[in-house]
């Protein structure tokens, strides 16, 4: 559906009736593999955040605990973590793009299309390695980083600010409830 012209894609029902279950779930494996990208991103972000907060705590007051990152720090850590995740998963992203575009193995003739045989990750990886060498797995990486890093960095910055604000609100409500209970007990006892 993603690679066909607007309005010309097959529905799932049509794919199943004209093709097979394999046709309906073609590309599922590579997409499952690519779910590692956000997992890597959030793991790296959390680890960098912990280190930064520990360092800030060691430099600052030993008795206080740092609660949240600054907006700038969250933005920078978000950008760094997304860049790392993208670099690590980009070879799989490139294979997915090659499979979807179904370009010829040599890539010399732009009009040539391979036969309807299914392309697998190992096939595409071999084509890239033979035709472009190891750096071929990273062709287009800059564009991918530009496309994804800004939005991810903004997302994590906003998430951190919302998280910090939510905790402040929860603590304020909790304190208010405790004060209300304490004052009502005093009034009942008086």
At a glance:
The chain is an all-alpha fold and 190 residues long. The chain has seven helices and no strands. The chain starts with 11 loop residues before the first helix and ends with a helix.
Describe it for me?
With 190 residues, this protein is mainly alpha-helical. It has two domains: 27-108 and 116-139, no CATH class; 142-189. The chain is built from seven helices and no strands. Helix 5 crosses helix 7 (141-189). The chain is elongated and about 85 Å long. Keywords: Membrane, Peroxisome, Repeat, Transmembrane, Transmembrane helix, Transport.
Q: What's the SSE blueprint?
A:
Layout: H1 12-18, H2 21-24, H3 28-33, H4 36-59, H5 71-101, H6 121-132, H7 141-189
Helix pairs in contact: 4-5, 5-6, 5-7
Mean pLDDT comes to: 81
Q: Percent of residues in helical segments?
A: over 70%
Give the termini distance in whole angstroms: 73 Å
The portion of residues forming beta strands comes to: under 5%
Family: Belongs to the mitochondrial carrier (TC 2.A.29) family.
Main location: membrane
Membrane topology: Multi-pass membrane protein
Keywords: Membrane, Peroxisome, Repeat, Transmembrane, Transmembrane helix, Transport
């Amino acid at each position: 559906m993603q690679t066909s012209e607007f309005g010309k894609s097959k529905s799932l029902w049509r794919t199943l009736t004209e093709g097979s279950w394999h046709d309906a779930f073609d590309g599922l494996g590579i997409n499952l593999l690519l779910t590692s990208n956000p997992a890597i991103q959030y793991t790296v972000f959390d680890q960098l955040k912990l280190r930064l907060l520990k360092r800030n705590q060691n430099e600052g007051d030993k008795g206080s605990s740092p609660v949240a990152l600054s907006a700038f720090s969250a933005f920078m850590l978000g950008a760094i973590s997304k860049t790392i995740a993208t670099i690590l998963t980009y070879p799989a992203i490139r294979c997915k793009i090659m499979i979807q575009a179904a370009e010829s193995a040599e890539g010399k003739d732009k009009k040539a299309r391979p036969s309807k045989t299914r392309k697998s990750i190992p096939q595409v990886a071999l084509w890239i390695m033979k035709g472009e060498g190891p750096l071929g797995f990273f062709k287009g990486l800059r564009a991918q980083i530009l496309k994804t890093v800004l939005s991810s960095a903004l997302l994590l910055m906003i998430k951190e600010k919302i998280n910090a604000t939510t905790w402040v609100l929860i603590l304020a409500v909790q304190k208010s409830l405790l004060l209300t209970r304490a004052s009502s007990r005093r009034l009942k006892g008086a």
